[in-house]
Amino acid sequence: MKPVLFLLLAVAIVLTGAYTVITVYDDNLQVGRMWETPAVRPHEQPIPLMATGIVPIKGGEVFARTAHASTLNSPVGTHLAVDLKQGETAYNRYCRHCHGQYHDGMGTVGQSFTPLPGDLRSHKVQSMIDGALYKEISFGLPGGRQPPLATTVSIHDRWQIIAYLKSLGTRP
């Protein structure tokens, strides 16, 4: 009976000692354990106010998606050389792969599609109003090959691409 009592006493002393060491460690050392890190208590600091102008209250992509194409007006100059050059650069970056160097739908990627991507210098495309082109580029064609590019191409680049395409005119 005495050996069992001594064993229980020794275990109690070891557990009490371990508890004391852990408590002293947690209370007195700078490098605390997990519950002492700020990541566990994220709401102790006041939540900062959102900067003004972050959330649009008018305009934006939702407006463009729901608006009639005739109400969408281009913010870029259709005859400014800078906008046309930037539109050409954006076309080469985002559109040329499918629509091709000559805007005929024979790009390196576009050749593998059936039907081929549209000829951007055709009478059909060139006679479209800018707002309709903007909506097709931005939100795609239902049941068509044109993917929605609203999340890929910036709003300003889309308008510059349209200005560039319109400057080409119809194919002779």
Description:
- The protein has 172 residues and is mostly helical.
- The protein folds into 2 domains: 2-44; 60-168, Cytochrome Bc1 Complex, Chain D, domain 2, CATH 1.10.760.10.
- It is built from 7 helices and no strands.
- It has helices spanning 2-28, 60-66, 81-94, 96-99, 123-126, 130-139, 155-168.
- Helix 3 crosses helix 7 and helix 6 (130-139) packs across helix 7.
- It starts with a helix and ends with a helix.
- The model has no long low-confidence stretch (mean pLDDT 83).
Characteristics of this structure?
7 helices, mainly alpha, 172 residues, Cytochrome Bc1 Complex, Chain D, domain 2
Secondary-structure map:
Elements lengths: L1 H27 L31 H7 L14 H14 L1 H4 L23 H4 L3 H10 L15 H14 L4
Helix pairs in contact: 3-7, 6-7
Order of helices and strands: HHHHHHH
Structural class: mainly alpha
Second CATH tier, the architecture of the largest domain: Orthogonal Bundle
The percent range for strand residues is under 5%
Total domain units: 2
Short description:
The chain has helices at residues 2-28, 60-66, 81-94, 96-99, 123-126, 130-139, 155-168. By secondary structure, it is mainly alpha-helical.
